[in-house]
Amino acid sequence: MKKLFEFKTKTIVATGLGAALFTLLFMYVKVPTGIPGTDIQTAYGIGGFFAALFGPIAGGLIAFIGHALSDSIQYGSAWWSWVIASGLTCFLTGLIYPKLKVEEGEFSVKSAIFFNVYQIIANAISWIIIAPILDIVIYAEPANLVFTQGVVAAISNAVSVGIIGTLLLTLYSKTRSKKGSLTKE
């Protein structure tokens, strides 16, 4: 049985690799939405993938570190309300880690639906509630702007995780041997 907050050497390595990938994708592989400061970020697909494989701590750290590094490199400082929301999104998505059996070679349609319902809820909590409230509290941003950005971010990030994360989990599960699939002749 997978432990929810287990943090092994493998998880530490995955966190470092995931944070590096998240940073690069966040900076260079995104699609503008037309709403200022809000893009469709492919990085969240990677964040969701790693969160589903390694759990909430790895997922949260990957997105938090990756977003903070990206902002700091591109703009000179992090936009902390969104960095926190990024980390929270992948942390919450990682909470389903014990229920998925991707490492055992299983990622059925039912698993994909479960993963996507969960990540959509995580994105909604993080981007429609947490990020706008933190924008208002920390940066005194106008409510109508930040809630609009939050809704667009929640939808675009959920789409990114839904497409990229689900595809990666499906492909990765196919590389794993299913339990009981090997027989002795």
UniProtKB/TrEMBL annotation:
Family: Belongs to the UPF0397 family.
Phylogenetic classification of the source organism: Bacteria, Bacillati, Bacillota, Clostridia, Lachnospirales
Protein's membrane topology: Multi-pass membrane protein
One GO CC annotation: plasma membrane
Pfam families hit by this protein: ECF-ribofla_trS
InterPro entries on file: ECF_substrate-spec-like, UPF0397
Compartments where located: Cell membrane
Domain of life: Bacteria
Keywords: Cell membrane, Membrane, Transmembrane, Transmembrane helix
Keyword hit for Cell cycle: no
Protein name: UPF0397 protein F7O84_00995
Transmembrane segments: 12-31, 43-66, 78-97, 117-140, 146-172
